[in-house]
Amino acid sequence: MTPRTLYVGCPMWAQRAWVGRFLPADTASGRELHAYSRLLNAVEGNTTFYASPTPSIVARWRDQALPGFRFVFKVPQHITHDRRLRGIATELAAFCQLMEPLGDLVGGFTLQLPASFGPDDLGALEWTLHQRSTAWRWSVEVRHAAFFSGTGRASLDSILSSQGVERVLLDTESLFSHPPLTDEGREEWEQKPRVAALHEPLTDHPIVRFIGTDDPVVTAAGIARWQPIVADWLSEGRTPTVFLHTPDNTGTPALALAFHKMLASLVEDLNPLPTPLPLLVHEQISLF
């Protein structure tokens, strides 16, 4: 049987609460990616949503990431939110060119669109997809309610399928299943959309963004619902990417590790995750 690959990861690679717990205790600030990419095999590139990096930062990411690791970068919000995909061909091409030194480390680019981006805006999306570089995989995350059922969903999925573009399968159902318990949970309630969780991929490279809650039991139950779905995708020969969020993200590496371990018990020949770096550095003590 051909080995299968499941990419799993978190919304970021630099979370100082992970140092000494998931990343080596001596991980310096700015070196988290080196350790993270030896723990998990994918990450959401949320940092590029807020600002494009400099070429020197891109080079540093290239040098720190383990071969076989995958970034799924979000296209800058200036393109998706401020310009709403209008007249952005030059900016989009420049962003892709900026990321070229990463080569195979780029698992794809995501157009995360605002909740106000609705069916009347599909022309701009279709135009953008025609302008995109086909050297990379692309995905689109929508938040407008009309895109989750009926003709709105069918129209969007038709455009994406015709272009070989994946629809990000965003799952916020656990988050909104009960009132938040923490300040971080309340902030997530304000920021994330209440939409139906869809489970049908459009390509052979599905992307799941699971948004958990501040109740670990509810979060675990929500993640468990994805296990048989992702196992089926792997058995069909697809290569999924699953990102796991919680309001504070302090324990998401453990959730991602556990998810991969469970899928390895369900699917034969699943490629293993990297061997993580030791958490403690044991220095040799000289006797002289």
Blueprint of the fold:
Blueprint: E1 7-10, H1 32-36, E2 42-45, H2 47-50, H3 55-64, E3 70-74, H4 77-82, H5 89-99, E4 106-112, H6 122-131, E5 138-141, H7 150-163, E6 166-167, E7 169-171, H8 183-191, E8 207-211, H9 216-224, H10 227-235, E9 241-245, H11 252-266
Parallel strand pairs: 1-2, 1-9, 2-3, 3-4, 4-5, 5-6, 7-8, 8-9
Helix pairs in contact: 6-7, 10-11
Your description of this structure?
The protein has 288 residues and is α/β, with parallel strands linked by helices. It folds into 2 domains: 41-167, Protein of unknown function UPF0759 (TIM Barrel, Alpha-Beta Barrel), CATH 3.20.20.410; 168-268, no CATH class. Helices cover 35% and strands 14% of the residues. It contains 11 helices and 9 strands. A 9-stranded parallel beta sheet has the order 6-5-4-3-2-1-9-8-7. Strand 1, helix 1 (32-36) and strand 2 (42-45) form a beta-alpha-beta unit. The N and C termini lie far apart (55 Å).
